[in-house]
Amino acid sequence: MTSSIGVNTTSVVEHALALMLALFKQLFLLDGEVRKGNFSIRYRNCPRDLREKTLGIVGFGRIGSSIAQACNTVFAMKILACDALLSDQEKGKYKDWVKFTDLPDLCMNSDVVSIHTPLNRDTEKMFDRQFFPRMKRTAFIINTSRGGVIDEQDLIQALKEGVIAGAGLDVFEDEPIQPGNELLTLKNVILTPHTAALTEECVTRMAVAGAQRVVDLFNGFIPDNVANPAVLSLDRWKHLRKK
After folding, report:
1. Domain co-membership, 129 together with 209
2. 167-218, pLDDT tens digit by residue?
3. 163 and 230: one domain?
4. What DSSP string describes 89-127?
5. The predicted structure's pLDDT at residue 3
6. Same domain, yes or no, for 183 and 221?
7. pTM for the complete prediction?
8. Distance between alpha carbon 5 and the CA centroid of its chain, in Å?
9. Which of 169, 176, 207, 219 is the most buried (most CB within 10 A)?
10. 3 state SS for 167-181
11. Domain extent at residue 217
12. DSSP secondary-structure letter at 238?
C-alpha cells in the first residue's frame, strides 16, 4: 500500500490560515451586519490584527510547520510549538524563530492555537474542559486535523460561556455533523465540512500522484511512499528497482 502523503499540505495550510484570518477579522459578523444594513458596525473595531500575536502549533509536522512559517514571515507572529514526536535534532532546526514548549504553557500564552496532531489513544480528547480555561479569553482555536482530538461538548461549553473567543473547525467528532449539534447555533465558531484538502487542485494532485505510483509499479519501479517497506523484501516484489 502506498499513500499521497504531503500532496494536501498546502491546501490544508491555506484553509487553516483562512479560518484564522476570518476569526481575527470577524468576517462572518461583519458580513452579516452589512447585509442587515448596519454599516456603522465598522466603528465597533471588531477586527483584530494578527501581527505580533502568538501562534501555538500543536503538531509541528509538514502542515503545522508551514503554517508557523507563513505566520512568522508575513505577520511577525511569535511561534510556540508542542510536538512530543519531534526529535531534539529536528527542533534545533527551528530554534531561531520557534519556541518548543509543553501543552499547558502553549495554551496559556497563545492568542490562537492551531491543531495538527493525529488522532490516537494519547491525543483523543486532549483538548477538554481542563485545557480551555487555561487559554486566554481572547484566544481562538483552529482544528483541521481530526475532530476526536477535541472534546466537543467541552468546547461548546467554553464557547457558550466565553471562556475562549471562538473556534474554526473543519473536523468533528461525528461526521457529517448532526442537525442537533449545538455548534450549529453558536455565532463565535466557523464550521466547514472536512474540506480543507478538497480543493479542485488538491483532488487532482492526489489522483495524479496515485495513478503515477501504479504506473511506476507496472514499469518495475518502487513506487513512492510505500506504507510498509518491509514487503519489498518479499519474492514477488524483489524485481522492483529504484527510479
Report:
1. no
2. 999 999 999 999 999 999 999 999 999 999 999 999 999 999 999 999 998 9
3. no
4. HHHHTTTTTEEE--HHHHHHH-SEEEE----STTTTT-B
5. 84
6. no
7. 0.93
8. 15
9. 169
10. EEECCCCCCCCCCCC
11. 200-237
12. T
